[in-house]
Write a structure and sequence with these properties.
Strand content: 15-25%
Largest sheet: 5 strands, antiparallel
Radius of gyration: 26 Å
Order of helices and strands: HHHEEHHHEEEEHHHEHHEEEH
Number of strands: 10
Number of helices: 12
Structural class: alpha+beta
Shape: elongated
Strand order of the largest sheet: 7-3-10-9-8
Length: 338
């Protein structure tokens, strides 16, 4: 275990390197931080940190820079989540509250995260497999043609046309709408098939074919939309950090184009907690020079999707973690109120 003093030296090195992009020397540390020890002691502490793999000496520079292991220790033990100021929180809320639908919420969230963190922002759409039914609307377009509208608790709206085997009256349709909603509203998608399987039998013979057709369309809608979708923004921000990528930025850009890679980076949506993956903790080869900060968001206690940012390992971790967490909280509130 590192002593408290050496942890403080590591904290100072990380903070200075993130702020200046320059390798950090013992003289600069003692001048800029109140470490209350001599430069010789700081040099000894830096030598010990280097021996244990927390910092390294780049090229022939006299200074040191944090390694992936050093950043990991910094995040786990030293970095609190930096809270956003009241004006920042108010700006986030105002910007997101003006969204008109789910696509607009996701689009605004991506732009906001990229601006706040100056990193690449990634936002996963809420998955229908983790959603519940808010309402099912049935609209009569012609005597034997309906529109089925499925609205989820995350604000997602799916529409399907239904061609019925026989005409249905407005009163029968209203009856079906009421009975269907009484069974499925507030229920998880996975529960719906079992809840509606006997519904046709409760209708008159002449309406059972139409009821069965409507239910078949509803169940198809529930399974069709399981594909994971995400939106990415702020890729141009990486151009500000070209010196942080050892050889070239190309592998990072290529990895960011692969949706499967990004979904794996964000992690399981059912895990709502903050996740920070640093450098070689990212399994994809093109992203070993990056860090990923992600967190779950949702309309209740359970996360329905993830959002986060990708940037160089030389990242303002407390600030980035604070921004990601705050944005996730506001997106969750908006989904709950929509």
């Amino acid at each position: 275990m590192l002593s408290e003093r050496r942890l403080e030296v590591l904290r100072a090195i990380v903070q200075d390197y993130v702020g200046t992009q320059e390798p950090v020397g013992s003289k600069a540390l003692t001048e800029r931080h109140n470490l209350q020890v001599s430069p010789a002691t700081v040099r000894n502490d830096m030598a010990a940190l280097e021996d244990e793999g927390y910092i390294a000496q780049p090229h022939t520079s006299a200074g040191r820079v944090p390694t992936d292991r050093g950043y990991r220790l910094f995040v786990d033990k030293l970095a609190g989540v930096k809270p956003l100021s009241k004006p920042e929180r108010r700006a986030i809320q105002n910007f997101l509250e003006d969204a008109v639908d789910l696509d607009d919420v996701v689009s605004r969230t991506v732009r906001l995260l990229a601006q706040l963190t100056r990193q690449v922002a990634v936002v996963q759409y809420p998955s229908l497999t983790r959603s519940t039914v808010r309402h099912v609307e049935l609209l009569l377009l012609a005597p034997a043609r309906l529109m089925l509208v499925l609205i989820t608790d995350t604000g997602r709206v799916e529409q399907r046309m239904v061609d019925c085997p026989a005409p249905i009256s407005e009163s029968s349709l209203a009856d079906l709408r009421a009975r269907l909603n009484s069974r499925v509203v507030g229920e998880r998608f996975s529960e719906v098939p079992g809840l509606v399987q006997d519904l046709p039998e409760s209708f008159d013979q002449e309406d059972r074919g139409t009821v069965s057709t409507v239910l078949a369309t509803l169940l198809e809608t529930l399974v069709e939309e399981t594909e994971e979708r995400l939106m990415i923004g702020g890729t141009a921000n990486l151009t500000h950090f070209v010196h942080d990528f050892p050889l070239t930025i190309r592998p990072v850009l290529e990895a960011l184009e692969e949706q499967v890679v990004l979904l794996k980076l964000l992690g399981e949506a059912k895990d709502p907690g903050m996740t920070v993956r640093i450098g070689h903790e990212n399994a994809h080869e093109g992203l070993t020079s990056t860090s990923v900060v992600s967190v779950g968001y949702g309309s209740g206690d359970e996360a329905v999707a993830k959002l986060g940012v990708v940037g160089p390992t030389r990242m303002d971790y407390p600030g980035t973690m604070g921004a990601v967490r705050a944005v996730a909280r506001y997106v969750g509130q908006i989904l709950a109120e929509s």
